[in-house]
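Hi U.,

Before I forget, here's the chain from the pilot set. I'm dumping it here mostly so it's searchable later in email.
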Amino acid sequence: MKGDTQKQDGAILLLDERARDVKARWNFYSAWASKYMGPSFNAKGNDVAIDTFTLVCERMERVKV
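Structure:
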């Protein structure tokens, strides 16, 4: 990104098993991406590919649902 970041607000939602009801919610403010790690692929395995994405924010709050 060469140091050109744009801060954004957003939310993280924890959903139930059927993805219908929100069980928990966290709002974050003035956040930017600080790290991303993609999966390492192995053609001989059948592991799940996991991406890791790290956000840094100036403020975060848990909202009662």
